[in-house]
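2024-03-11 09:14:02 INFO receiving multi-entity request
2024-03-11 09:14:02 INFO entity count = two
2024-03-11 09:14:03 INFO echoing inputs for audit
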Amino acid sequence: MTAPSNGPTNGSSNASVLIGPVEVVGTGLIGTSIALACRRAGLEVLLTDAAADHVRTASGLGAGRPRAEEDVPQLVVVAVPPDALGAAIRAALDAAGPDTYVTDVGSVKGAPLDAVAGHPAAARYVGSHPMAGTEHSGPLTANAALFDGRPWAITPAHGASPAATALVDALVRLCGAVPVMLPPGDHDRAVARTSHVPHLMASLVAGTLAGAAPDHLALSGTGIRDVTRVAGGDPALYSQIIGANTDAVADLLTEVRQRLDLVLEAVREGDRVGLESLLAYGQAGTRAIPGKHGGAPQTMVPVRVAVPDHPGELARLFADAGASGVNIEDVRIDHDPGRPVGLVELDVVEGTAEVLREALESRGWTTHR
Amino acid sequence: MTAPSNGPTNGSSNASVLIGPVEVVGTGLIGTSIALACRRAGLEVLLTDAAADHVRTASGLGAGRPRAEEDVPQLVVVAVPPDALGAAIRAALDAAGPDTYVTDVGSVKGAPLDAVAGHPAAARYVGSHPMAGTEHSGPLTANAALFDGRPWAITPAHGASPAATALVDALVRLCGAVPVMLPPGDHDRAVARTSHVPHLMASLVAGTLAGAAPDHLALSGTGIRDVTRVAGGDPALYSQIIGANTDAVADLLTEVRQRLDLVLEAVREGDRVGLESLLAYGQAGTRAIPGKHGGAPQTMVPVRVAVPDHPGELARLFADAGASGVNIEDVRIDHDPGRPVGLVELDVVEGTAEVLREALESRGWTTHR
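2024-03-11 09:21:47 INFO inference complete, emitting structure
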């Protein structure tokens, strides 16, 4: 395991070695998954939740035992819903002795920081945010493998204790995730860009479909499905998440609105050159998203295959694709209405598409570009 | 094969039976694919293209023969780039005898109609638009199966000859596609909604990534990839397509801009209730997209499976999924940076998820919700 390029250095003290106990406050999907990962690593885990039956369920899953009054956790992980975060982090700091550190896993980092400002133990809090979905479905959905290979932001404020940062870094690695060190404000601007504003824009597009004529929507292809997919998420949860990051979201959304005005002007005036340049700017943006496994972005080429729409055919396709030795980087199944034969798109790294296409054709599949 | 609910009725004359020859003007992906589908059905196909080598290539693929001066096509299919459509349709009508009908396959239907307005043979033109991708890659990428099960809009104007509409309907069915009858203006408003505005919005989101800090983009998950995927398309082609549909796009984009102002206001003022209601409106919109095969929208549930990222594992997964008897409706592979184990999401119809999950767990897979 390699050290993060901008990670903390371990001092000579033992304070930065995660030995437990770890207390998990909030035994939903994220909290219980962290608890399971800690148990998997042999740490003692203490469980706390406003709902006693959640603690019982999580205990029953082997995620730890209910916290007792006299327990002294080394690290408290606060994993409660966004609106309850600030108070729960303060409460954890209130209860913490001198050897207890606190983190949280909320999707926004500025707001909880404001909540601990001025607290005498504030230096022993360092925020974090695992990029592992936002489902909110209780301990039964938890899994120790939830964070495998995921980015997990660690966001020490000025004046945060290096020991606190080191313990959170150790927790992230123990969960199998990849630490990404960012100042709290940078984190919130980053997720506004990679998550909150995209969600709002997807929601705006999806809103244009509500109440549209069904024979118009019959022309829907894969594009509109991709663009609007995230907008299917729980409005109550996302209004909490986005509502906790209003400054960064409003700033970026204001920029987007200005650019939308340029697009609208170019469309109204039939300015093809302006329109093409705005579209080219967007195309360049799609290439800025990091490639798989954090590597440089790679050019993917789709190989399209007609596949009968019943169980077993996909297995046959992937068996034949696997035999070609070409790695499939992404898959899409085409859902166009009325399609008795599915169209499956296999994305592969440029240069390997022809190998895959020939391998599939030789086994009787019909492919096209 | 069933008749379309709002399709043409065949008269006693033979004019509405597609017997050929079919002339294809423009032997790119779409044109050559139509030619191949017609040849597959045993029709004579005549090929025309400004680029003589494209005609030779298409002929070599078995798509038909070059048109000769004395040939009299029954149906001319104009399949040239958007900006060349109007002139090419007029030219086809100029050359058409009394028994020749004309259609086109352009992505916008109002503009070509304007181009034929007042032409003495205008009644013998009926526009159409297959929903089969917008790649623009020449005859070599063509495939007779390109249109299998796809929606294909047919857009007769007022005063269009029923025989012309019937011939286009016959062509659509011969290509294996599903006819969707719409007035031209309705079609253009429909694709503004299902394709052009979503494309522009995706491009705006993608534009916010251009030039962003790489350590911020390290937090990118699957959501931002889904939202921006279509923005990777060719800016030159999309500026032509959208530039030919400015009225419908500007109208809808103006609506979206107004709603964006509401979102921005709700974010700036921290109005959670307003934000949640705007998000709920978007969520409702995602449910308006027709389900697979044109059926009622179905609720899909994701089953998430951890999969080692190398060839063969996907095949094993789909073999095990296939053995469960549960049909996989959609697939996504998670690309989060740094992930050594891929996360595959299998979407299945609600109620079958538990069956699939148990089947996969019993074969050693780790699943989570």
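2024-03-11 09:21:48 INFO post-check: The first strand of chain A starts at residue 22 and ends at 25.
2024-03-11 09:21:48 INFO post-check: Residues 84 and 187 of chain A are 20 Å apart (CA to CA).
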